[in-house]
Amino acid sequence: MSASPSTRLTLGAGQRLKQPREFARLKVQGRRLARGSVLMNWAELPATGRSRLGIVAAKRIGGSVVRSRAKRLLRQAFRLHQHDLRVPSEIVLVARDSIAGKSFADVERDFLAALRSAGLLKPGGAVTAITP
Questions:
Q1: Model pTM greater than 0.85?
Q2: 98/89 Cα distance (integer angstroms)
């Protein structure tokens, strides 16, 4: 993790996408790619903005316990690496079926691969995933 000790690693209510129209806007107007267990829709914001996150886990992934765990893992990966983003962005992460049963390290690796492919990581930012 490249965040300094004084950097807050929170994900407050203001940083979450909640309205269906926000998800729909990113799906239509944003860019999209899939890496491993994560599908990502995103749009870059002005430099003065603040990154925001939305998460989707469809019922086909599994029961409520599996879906909740998938969302927690994705939220944690974003929370740890939000300061490694090159520019503030609105991101919607869609959990794919393969996320069921994956460890945090695997999900984090997929998330970072998606960010790298999208060109959203700072140069030299988040070189390796954190392993427990």
A1: yes
A2: 25
